[in-house]
Write a structure and sequence with these properties.
Elements lengths: L1 E7 L5 H11 L4 E4 L9 E6 L3 E5 L5 H4 L4 E4 L12 H19 L6 E2 L7 H10 L4 E6 L12 E3 L1 E2 L5 H10 L3 E6 L8 H16 L4 E2 L17
Parallel strand pairs: 1-2, 1-10, 1-11, 2-5, 6-7, 7-8, 9-10
Antiparallel strand pairs: 3-4
Helix pairs in contact: 1-6, 3-4
The structure holds zinc ion (ZN).
Length: 227
């Protein structure tokens, strides 16, 4: 079975996450909003009422994400279904261009900020040239790759039934895909350890191979377990 993960927003906690992923040799896609500040970290929002969530600077991102797949998350994280279509298209196209120019990845997907989209937004994403766009909805057992501009995941990484879903997908040798934000682990070392164990278990399962989400939509063939 092929397994995939993606992480949104480009927050500073991705540094700790990347260490875990590298330790286990796990592939991942990071969906970034490059409309930020070049050399100074900024607070994007607060988590759990007490933690400041900082975004990585544009200068930091290439090093932090070296070796990983990058996806778009628009430039400034607007709710795309609520803004003017011209603005939405600019957000999408500029983000895609940034990823091509700064990460050398011209084929990429994106994730909808806060999962907000509609049919018109899907068309804009297609126009901007993305391979796929990820929602925050859950797929049934099988991923809905026949609707790439509204690609669901199997679940969020903190879903209580995560392993149940994983085992169900494994039973049909399907594709398993989960998502999250590293900031959701802020201030909780136990949860970080659980994530470490989770990535380890996924990697060590003889039935799995990590792929990048975009591989679903490109003619790469199957990536090897260690390649
Ligand atoms: Zn987001």
């Amino acid at each position: 079975m092929r397994i995939m993960q993606c992480w949104d927003d480009g927050d500073v906690d991705d540094i700790r996450l990347v260490e875990i992923l590298k330790k286990h040799g796990a592939k991942a896609t990071f969906n970034i909003c490059p409309g930020g500040i070049k050399s100074e970290r900024r607070v994007a929002h607060h988590f759990g009422g007490k933690y400041d969530v900082y975004r990585l600077t544009l200068d930091e991102m290439p090093e932090v994400y070296a070796g990983f797949c990058i996806g778009g998350h628009t430039m400034t994280h607007p709710l795309l279904s609520l803004i003017d279509p011209d603005w939405a298209l600019t957000e999408l196209a500029a983000c895609k261009k940034y990823i091509a120019n700064h990460f050398g990845q011209s084929d990429c997907g994106m994730a909808y900020p806060c999962g907000r989209y509609d049919d018109a937004v899907k068309e804009l994403v297609r126009q901007a040239g993305y391979l796929y766009a990820r929602t925050v909805e859950n797929a049934d057992l099988k991923l809905n790759t026949d609707d790439p501009m509204a690609l669901h995941t199997n679940c969020h990484f903190l879903a209580p039934d995560f392993w149940e879903k994983f085992e169900a997908v494994k039973a049909i040798d399907g594709d398993f895909y989960f998502w999250g934000h590293a900031f959701e682990l802020m201030g909780d070392d136990d949860r970080w350890r659980e994530l470490d164990a989770m990535i380890g278990r996924l990697t060590d399962d003889p039935a799995t191979e990590w792929i990048d989400v975009r591989d679903l939509f490109m003619n790469h063939g199957r990536a090897g377990k260690n390649g």
